[in-house]
Specification:
Blueprint (H helix, E strand, L loop, with lengths): L2 H24 L15 H12 L2 H17 L9 H30 L1 E2 L12 H10 L3 E4 L4 E3 L1 H13 L11 H18 L1 H15 L1
Antiparallel strand pairs: 1-2, 2-3
């Protein structure tokens, strides 16, 4: 759901989504009604965390991030070789799990925020407008009452996840720089992760047409 794997998914999504935009403009349709999800509570936040975490994309992201970290010898600096690659994969996967746990459950429950993504769809506008909306949800969310608010859950959850990484990162990566990079990557990864629920239905519809 986060970081490199989602960035790669963004590239794959861009071309067919733009094609979808052209189709929508040439064959305009009445906007579909936007329905908000039912109000969130502790149980729904817990299930949202589980849905976000126990997904094949979590493993895909862990493998992709671990491979890039290994190729560039960047944080977490486990070294070289197959054992180091496995450790990088494990660390990246744990990063995703802890960020989801703190952001989508703990902080969302404590701050009464609803971090579930609300897809806009083609009726909202073109590819770039929808992309802007998806990315900015990393910093904007809604309260349990439906009011718009700053996404403190994602920011605080990312900070807690980055701090917790000191418990399992190697000594060379237990420093302020590594924590700061992890923190920023977590926040930006949350925005990129929103691209999938926003555009995947469009891509799937295009595949079905062909």
């Amino acid at each position: 759901m986060r970081q490199l794997a989602v960035s790669f998914a963004l590239v794959l999504v861009a071309v067919p989504a733009l094609a979808e935009d052209r189709t929508e403009r040439s064959n305009p349709q009445p906007p579909a009604p936007v329905t908000a999800p039912p109000p969130s509570n502790a149980a729904k936040k817990w299930h949202h965390f589980l849905d976000e975490t126990f997904s094949p994309l979590t493993l895909v992201a862990g493998a992709a991030n671990g491979a890039v970290s290994q190729a560039t010898n960047s944080d977490p600096r486990y070294g070289v070789g197959g054992g180091a690659l496995a450790e990088r994969f494990g660390a990246s996967t744990v990063d995703t799990v802890t960020q989801n746990f703190f952001g989508d459950f703990v902080m969302a429950w404590a701050l009464h925020e609803d971090t579930r993504y609300r897809r806009k769809g083609p009726a909202y506008g073109g590819f770039w407008k929808r992309t802007e909306y998806a990315l900015t949800r990393a910093l904007i969310t809604r309260t349990d009452n439906g009011a718009r608010t700053f996404n403190w859950s994602n920011v605080a959850g990312s900070a807690l996840s980055a701090g917790l990484s000191n418990l399992y990162y190697p000594p060379a990566s237990r420093n302020g720089r590594a924590i700061a990079i992890n923190f920023v990557t977590n926040i930006s990864g949350a925005g990129l992760g929103n691209m999938l629920p926003e555009f995947w239905p469009d891509v799937r519809r295009l595949f079905r047409r062909h």
